[in-house]
Amino acid sequence: MSTRYSAPFGPQGSSPIDAQTAHKLLSLALSRGGDYADLFYEYNASGSYAYDEGILKAAGRAVTMGLGVRVMKGDATGYAYVEELTSESMQKAALTAAQIAASGGTPTPVGLQSRTLPKRYSVELLSLDVRGEDKRALLERADKAARAADPRVTRVDASIAEEIREILIASSDGKFVHDVQPLIRFGIRVIVEEEGKRQSGSSGGGGRFGMEYFDAKSPEWHAAEAVRGAVSMLDAREAPAGEMEVVLAPGDSGILLHEAVGHGLEADFNRKKTSNYTDSIGKNVASELCTVVDDARIQSSRGTINVDDEGNEPECATLIENGTLRGYMHDRHSADFFKVTPSGNGRRESFRSHPMPRMTNTLLLPGPHDPEEIVRSVKRGVFARKFGGGQVDISNGDFVFSLTESYLIEDGKITAPLKGVNLIGNGPDVMRKVVMLGTDMETSDGIWTCGKDGQSVPVGVGCPTIKISAVTVGGTQMGQG
Amino acid sequence: MTRRNLESLIDLGGQIVERARKAGADMAEVSVREGDHLSVKVRKGEAELVEEAGSRSVGLRVMRGQQVAVTYTSDLSEAGIARFVEDAIELAALSQPDPFAGPPDPSLLSKRSEHRDLDTYDETMSKIGAGDAIKLAKEGEDAAFAYDKRITNSEGATFTRAAGASALVTSGGFQGVVDGTYASLVVSPVADDADGKKRSGHHWAARRKMHELESPKSVGEEAARRTIAKLGAQKVDTQEVAVIFDPDAARSLLGLLAGCISGGSIWRRSSYLLDRENTEVASKLVTVVDDPLLVGAPGSRSFDGEGLLSRRNVVVENGILKTYLMDTYSAKKLNKASTASASRGSSGGVSIGTTNFVLQPGTMSPEELLKSTPRALYVTDMMGMGFNAVTGDFSRGAAGYWVENGEKKFPVSEVTISLNLDQILKRIDAVASDLDMRTSVASPTIRVSAMTLAGR
Fold it and tell me: For residue A395, which residues of chain B lie inside 8 Å, CB to CB?
């Protein structure tokens, strides 16, 4: 718990919401005949520090708080939220959401039972409780290190974003849980210039940590990494265009999984039969090397949660096992539909939004190949090292994935750096073309945010070195593929 | 909800400015926002989601000497406001003196009497209840299903109406308040393709006035047309070829340009358009104007995020870059004057933003443009974020149609298009007349003479 920023509605708050109050509101929410209702209280305090041109130019802080009330009747959802937590406005929200069901009986909510949650992010010292000067000093160290790393560095921007999200969930089926979710993210971006050429490079990381994050990865490490990336791109040449072999570096390449299969396995799309993975459980959807899981348990990872935003506890869901589709990621609604236990993937951006099936930490588990042997096996292809993000069309599985640092592979050796380029492929098709998988598993260092239907949530990804036998590389250089 | 009491927002802003000054701020700027919305989603004829809510928040930027801090809160209780002001003062002591920081010179601030009513508010919109909204969304989805038997599924149809107001009050003496409404309808049908793939498409309409919104039937039918047109999409061979961008795809290119002419990316040396003022940055057919004073448009506003009177800025004229867009800070950094392009974020901070950023339409209809094209990829959808603003390198996923001899031949998907943005803009050889102001960044259909398409 933060000593300075804590929710008034929390157990130690100034006006705690107890089981009795929650039960009354849930009764009101069901008063028009809904089948199910839940309350989602959220308090979010965040801080930001922007270091630029050698000074801390601006510091910021934001506090938001509110209650979202959801009522379900069949497949229909009524949703209302308020920012003012007075009895009157909370009751009004409950009644507004209740209207989705304007007929039928008035079920009574089950008595609320609070539970003890796992501790997947036990932070000793929340960064929000630490003096701002300490964070400013970290940024100053990053700035100095980047400038000292190479004379071609002309600009450095470094930032820290910190957040604490306190949630309280009460549901008409008896759940009553409270969780405090910390999040920190450090980032640095540099510009290097040489003889009229300019390039940028960046590095960042974080997760559900407090200040101890910087013990593992120092500002100096990130500064050096940003400068290394920028300098190596100064000599980047036009990337090739067309289908070719691609090797993906371990860790952040997991974004490929996230786009190529992850979204398509979120159960809402399959409930609605709008995903290309609809009705595919038990079918082969990837090469036999591929086992994909969504693991919410990884200690302090950016996508890790003790409890989802509907009060369910996620574990590690197996999505694909040796190429065969085993299951989807569920929220309460889809789990009901498929008659399975909710997998704890019901997440939402804030109290202003209703939950949906979302990923936590999506991982492609390691395979049998030596990473160096994987690169050596490529005659001519692309080695992808850093990524800008991706996007998928759920209906047919087409996805893109942008590379911000990549290299040519020629005769089994990594050679020239390539300009920023997109990869495009089709999810199941590319997953079947995973022909080698390294032993070198890595998880991303806390930078990814996933967007769906306008809602952003923090996620993690992970994978070993991956070789794909053919994928379209969207460069400008033709005739060399 | 009835139209808000705009004076109450100004009053709240004024009170917070006073509190911040008393707490030790030399300068304080407060933005107050209030809004409400109703959003409904219908899927396969049934209401799936009805959401209704209102919100209110305040943002504060303070300076002590040359030290800046920004705070935001939606907790408007006495304790919440007290914490928010206290935090700002404390954080200002933490940040370091920035010689360029500061509000606009008071003599440049606009007066309330100068703020024009830009006709952005529709009083009738609040009368649309959940039942009416469901009916509108249902009409749109029904029209998509009725249009073609091959539409077999739906991601749903969503109707949203929103109203909002925002006020800005500063210790420099500025007071201003604007309000507006917005209604939108999006329909997203799904069709089954051969080989088990599905094809989803969508079409949407948005306007500030309800009576100007395209009819649900027309939105649904166009959505169905766009979805059906994707059936049987195929990859094509890697090649260099002309590319036609439909208004939605062209708008996204224009959005990239907006980022690169922002004064912030210029002084940060993070734009390929650094040191390019008064040089050729696009073909002669390209004129781009940022015009906040358009009546009833999505990005219209009578004053900017720092209180300067809004003005029309011609950014690119017949291919020549005339100006960057600047707020007070970036103007000082670049030794120029602000173009009144400050945008006040909900967090209380100031950044540079576009208002109605529009590629001016040509005279040729989109049909004529197509007819005059021997061979091209006609892009209707782009995917991904493959753009490096520092170098201008552009590479994105694309889908659309193949064009041969002035006709659409077959749908294309799973390809990428690549070329440096500088070259893309210079190679624009046709600009059509079909401008639709659904969004604040808007473009008609355009054609680029050659790009690299990567496919098979």
Answer: 190, 197-200
